[in-house]
């Protein structure tokens, strides 16, 4: 049986030093894909973009800067503001920087950890099934 953790979090898309736009991010996690997180970005109830990346990036980004290339994550705190986590997504020379409240992201990550504890992902991955799908061309 596959266990899941899903939650829509309010994020801020950074347009400039003091300009942001609210964006909803639907965070999803599945026990049969224990290493990855899916984030669907929503506008007017429709998915406009979906990103897959390692759950470890979000876990590590709570405390320090992690990632390179397409996805980077790091904590940020401004005086008088709640602690936030920055998520930078890059593709084809374009960069998108978002922030999310650290408390909300942490609560969701705790849900994922209750499903698959960090460091134990290999126990939940059915490598034979994934290899069979890959060899059958169904990935």
Structural class: alpha+beta
- Major beta sheet, specifics? 8 strands, antiparallel
| Mean pLDDT figure | 90
The level of helicity is: 10-25%
Quote the beta fraction.
over 45%
Rg over CA atoms, rounded to whole Å, is: 16 Å
The number of distinct helices, counting runs of at least 4 residues, comes to 3
Total strand segments: 8
Task: Tell me briefly what this model is.
With 139 residues, the protein is an alpha+beta fold. 22% of the residues lie in helices and 48% in strands. The chain has an 8-stranded antiparallel beta sheet with strand order 4-3-2-1-8-7-6-5.
Descriptive report:
This protein is α+β, with helices and mostly antiparallel strands and 139 residues long. It is built from three helices and eight strands; from the N terminus they run E-E-E-E-H-E-E-E-E-H-H.
Write the layout of secondary structure elements.
Layout: E1 4-16, E2 19-30, E3 36-43, E4 46-54, H1 55-61, E5 66-68, E6 71-76, E7 84-91, E8 94-101, H2 102-115, H3 127-135
Antiparallel strand pairs: 1-2, 1-8, 2-3, 3-4, 5-6, 6-7, 7-8
Key traits:
139 residues, alpha+beta, eight-stranded antiparallel beta sheet, 3 helices
